[in-house]
Amino acid sequence: MEDEFEFKHIPIMLDEVIHGLDIKPNGIYVDGTLGGGGHSYEIAKRLTAGGRLIGIDQDEAAIKAAGERLAEFKDRVTIVRSNYAQMINILNGLGIREVDGILLDLGVSSYQLDNAERGFSYMEDAPLDMRMDRGQEKTARDIVNYYSKEELTRIIKEYGEDKFASKIASKIAAFREGKPIETTGELADIIKSAIPMKYRATGGHPAKRTFQAIRIELNRELGVLEDSIEGMIDILSDNGRIAIITFHSLEDRIVKSAFKRAESPCTCPPNFPVCVCGKKSKGFVASRKPIVPSEEEMKWNSRAKSSKLRIFARKRESNE
């Protein structure tokens, strides 16, 4: 079934990412969310034989597609099936201690959305899945059928930012008393029934926020991001850069806060004449405001609309 689909992920803000990473031809770069290899192709193209690109993705279909797309650069590209949370361990295993640039594009790929059997889309009926790593056992079906009403309310409110979270959770809990919820179509209809008619005409598909919330919970997307950023900044070489594209306000908040802490980590009270906590800046935020797609890009790629790009540049102390 999967072979009928081409793994596509139109690279968001491609020019802005390439410019922001300030690629050195002989540098070492990591694409922690390889996808179809769109961004990676442009990075690899700019590397000489002395440069290196490590691509990481937990989706088997992405690994296969990116391998084909990047085949012409096989002398400088290494692809690993894993989660970017394991980046430091992966690099250690390759004998790499520091890198010149890291990219994370946290969006769901077009392939994952368009391939109905993956269960990410509320537009087509398919088994409730939503796993980015199909090697894991837990699926969206488990969340929808076995989380308590209170737990469902929390994740729909927090990760979906839906004001009807409580109503949606109540409808889900009531429906599953009769039979388990098995498909995306069933879930989308239940969500729709929880939202008052006058609100259904605005703000996109009524199931969009809940599906997003379940996907984020299932794949631990926010926790993995929060736990990983500091370590990734630490392995950047002097003048190395990390670029992160987010699609959700909570993701963007995590990135913004982590970059700010790395730039200004001092915890001393403002009235202290000198710093005594000893925490030194790791560099600077290269994008004071989030970079957003151009109007033109948003016209031809609707999935770019909610994206934001932030960039941090590493400055190492001379004694590091």
From TrEMBL:
Residues that, per the record, bind S-adenosyl-L-methionine: G37, G38, H39, D57, Y84, D105, Q112
Compartmental location: Cytoplasm
Record flagged with keyword Lipid metabolism: no
Catalytic activity as recorded in UniProt: cytidine(1402) in 16S rRNA + S-adenosyl-L-methionine = N(4)-methylcytidine(1402) in 16S rRNA + S-adenosyl-L-homocysteine + H(+)
SUPFAM superfamilies (alphabetical): Putative methyltransferase TM0872, insert domain (SSF81799), S-adenosyl-L-methionine-dependent methyltransferases (SSF53335)
Main location: cytoplasm
Keyword field: Cytoplasm, Methyltransferase, rRNA processing, S-adenosyl-L-methionine, Transferase
InterPro entries reported in the protein's UniProt record: RsmH (IPR002903), SAM-dep_MeTrfase_MraW_recog (IPR023397), SAM-dependent_MTases_sf (IPR029063)
Pfam families registered for this protein in UniProt: Methyltransf_5 (PF01795)
Keyword Nuclease (UniProt): no
EC numbers, comma separated: 2.1.1.199
PANTHER family: 12S RRNA N4-METHYLCYTIDINE METHYLTRANSFERASE, S-ADENOSYL-METHYLTRANSFERASE MRAW
UniProt record similarity statement: Belongs to the methyltransferase superfamily. RsmH family.
Physiological role: Specifically methylates the N4 position of cytidine in position 1402 (C1402) of 16S rRNA.
Name of the protein described by the UniProt record: Ribosomal RNA small subunit methyltransferase H
Gene, per the UniProt record: rsmH
